[in-house]
Specification:
Blueprint: H1 2-5, H2 12-20, H3 28-44, H4 51-60, H5 70-91, H6 97-108, H7 110-120, H8 122-148, H9 154-163, H10 170-173, E1 194-199, H11 219-226, H12 233-252, E2 255-261, H13 275-281, H14 300-312, H15 318-333, E3 363-365, H16 367-375, H17 377-387, H18 393-405, H19 415-425, H20 437-457, E4 461-472, E5 477-488, E6 494-500, H21 516-526, E7 537-544, E8 552-556, H22 567-579
Parallel strand pairs: 1-2, 3-5, 6-7
Antiparallel strand pairs: 4-5, 5-6, 7-8
């Protein structure tokens, strides 16, 4: 990429791509912590620029990285060092693209790392093989470029490479190999024929792939109109299905004599054969499922895996298990990875089985966590300890509107002040793309207008804005938080207002009377969190500013009007007990599908507990 050669062309997208590439090797957590570290340093110096700008700056000049915690700064330091190497190599007199590439390759250390992983085989080995092949193709392209244009600089090579609309495919150029197998996409196979054609991996979700793919200008809608198709998501899905079916038909009709189509059905239902398979054969593919196991690959990891599963399977005869154990012992002695039971994840005892809190230590519950802890305590625990999803741009816009709302006192609700506040700080928001700025800014201004409209009709009096509180419910349970607005109704009772800026509201009218967050606010009032203004709760409300329709106020009646006025306090105490426990339960719920810690959860096949051998 040209940005690697010219510091001024390095932008945020390229910086993030480099960080996550094998060169940087950063994971999303490392990137987040790095951004936080850079932002904290900048803020301390009065610099309010977004972390994306700081990240780009740090890759071009890594001095700031020295002040960031070493483990989070390390990937960025590596990328910065390699950028320096590339720029230096490219600037040498007479340097060719091949020279620059070679300098980068040597400095990266990837050759040794990928070769070692490749030699171990398995899934990771196959990936390393593919990566090595890709690098070979790149070197090949650089060599051909140097032959064609002697003396041309690296920048020209990069421009030529990135400007290719169709990659110069080395397979295509050497395709005439007699009886060799050709591997190509269904699109590329159009108009060609072979005696035998294999169409592998025809899985539902992959073929057809029905993810909606629109374009910025929506030109595909013109095609739909001309074809007389219904507009909108349903029409687009139907059109996609037609297109995918046509493509599948192209693939399977390329064979002159024999076509082999493969798919798998997993026992847990995660993987299913495509619907096109039954359309092709006219039968249910499940009825013809083949469960024959393929012979084991002739690699050490595969051998170790087979020996381990033989040893740990209680259904295997004892003499076979004993033989497997003896072989494993020999391999462990020879230091073959994975053979020694000391490395088996299912075997070590729990490192610590104590509860998260000591019995007499107070547990602090925030109103916003009550619902998540009650819904699935495992997700709450994992998210709280680093498994949370990255903050979205919507959250940044929401935080800005919340901050602007602090200026909206009863006495002074001046639209211009609030809009100026939003405009003045909008550039500090981390958006996924800068072109979204206009739309998101408009959304923020619409929320400000909705807030002003809602305030104009609000019959209550303002007591406090962004009021922090902490109060004990009993000897071990504390509620702590901050309310967006604390208001007083005509009977002198306190009402908490929570401003919501999300695009959708997840609280239905039926859920409202026992909505946990609002209930926790009310319990806090009655426990004396705002004793300065009173201890009687007049209810609590969500004010939805972000929905596409107008502003919506969702009111929870006062606790005193509930059949059990103590339900909210009890719920908070139960939440505290769950948070302080030694074990945390995975509870399947409607939000599992989008759960960010799903791969660490036993309800998911990838997060299932690794067990050790049974005796
Ligand atoms: Fe809980 Fe579901 Fe997430 Fe598992 S996938 S942690 S059950 S929310």
């Amino acid at each position: 990429m040209r940005c690697a050669l010219e510091p001024e062309r390095l932008d945020e997208d390229a910086a993030v791509a480099l960080l996550h590439s094998p060169l940087g090797g950063a994971d999303p957590m490392a990137e987040r912590r790095l951004r936080q570290g850079l932002r904290a340093l900048a803020l301390a110096a009065g610099d309010r620029r977004p972390s994306g700008v700081l990240l780009v700056e740090a890759l071009n000049d890594p001095r700031d990285l020295l002040a960031v915690e070493r483990r989070w700064a390390a990937p960025a330091q590596t990328v910065a060092r390699l950028l320096g190497t590339v720029r230096e190599a490219a600037a040498r007199p007479g340097a060719t693209a091949e020279d620059t590439l070679w300098a980068l390759w040597q400095a990266s250390g990837l050759a040794e790392r990928w070769s070692t992983v490749s030699a171990r085989g398995g899934h990771r080995g196959a990936t390393a093989d593919r990566d090595l092949d890709a690098v070979m193709v790149l070197f090949d392209a650089a060599a051909r470029f140097a032959d064609r244009l002697p003396g041309a600089r690296t920048e020209v090579f990069v421009d030529q490479l990135t400007g290719q609309e169709l990659p110069a495919d080395t397979i295509a150029q050497t395709a005439d190999r007699g009886s060799a197998v050709r591997i190509l996409t269904a699109h590329a196979a159009k108009g060609l024929e072979w005696d035998v054609v294999l169409v592998p991996g025809v899985q539902e979700g992959i073929w057809p792939d029905l993810r909606l793919r629109g374009s910025v200008l929506g030109s595909e809608q013109l095609v739909d109109i001309l074809a007389g198709r219904e507009l909108g998501a349903v029409g687009q899905t139907a059109a996609l299905l037609d297109e995918e079916r046509r493509l599948f038909s192209v693939a399977v009709t390329r064979a002159r004599q024999r076509v082999i189509v493969t798919a798998v059905a997993s026992g847990d239902g995660e993987e299913q054969p495509s619907r096109f398979l039954s359309e092709l054969s006219g039968e249910d593919p499940q009825e013809h499922s083949i469960t024959t196991r393929l012979p084991r690959a002739l690699t050490l990891p595969a051998l170790v895996a087979e020996l381990r599963s033989t040893l740990t399977d209680p259904g295997t005869p004892p003499d076979r298990r004993a033989v497997a154990a003896a072989h494993l012992a020999r391999l462990a002695e020879a230091r073959v990875p994975g053979a020694d039971p000391a490395d088996w994840w299912g075997l070590p005892p729990l490192s610590d089985d104590r509860a998260l809190h000591d019995e007499d230590e107070p547990v602090t519950v925030t109103p916003s966590t009550v619902e998540s802890v009650q819904r699935c305590s495992l997700r709450w625990l994992l998210e709280r300890h680093g498994g949370g999803a990255r903050p979205t741009p919507e959250q940044g816009v929401g935080n800005l509107v919340h901050a602007a709302a602090m200026l909206a006192t009863d006495a002074q609700v001046d639209r211009a002040t609030l809009i100026d506040y939003v405009a003045g700080r909008f550039d500090e928001i981390e958006l996924s793309a800068r072109w979204l700025a206009g739309r998101e800014r408009q959304r923020a201004e619409q929320m400000v207008d909705k807030l002003i409209g809602w305030l104009a009709d609000n019959p209550r009096r303002l007591a406090a804005i962004e009021a922090a509180f902490m109060v004990n419910l009993d000897q071990v349970t504390q509620i702590k938080g901050r309310v967006d607005r604390l208001e007083v109704d005509e009977q002198g009772r306190l009402v908490v207002i929570d401003l919501k800026t999300g695009k959708t509201t997840s609280v239905t009218e039926a859920d409202l009377p026992e909505q946990p967050q609002l209930g926790a606010y009310q319990a806090a009032i009655e426990a004396g969190a705002f004793a300065e203004w009173g201890e009687e709760s007049g209810g609590a409300a969500l004010v939805q500013l972000g929905s596409h329709t107008g502003v919506k106020e969702q009111v929870q009646p006062p606790l005193s009007e509930a059949a059990d006025p103590g339900w909210a306090a009890e719920l908070v105490k139960r939440t505290a007990a769950t948070m302080a426990a030694a074990t945390f339960q995975a509870v399947v719920n409607a939000k599992c599908r989008t759960c960010p810690v799903r791969t660490s959860c036993p309800v998911d096949v990838k997060g299932r507990h690794v067990t050790g051998p049974s005796s």
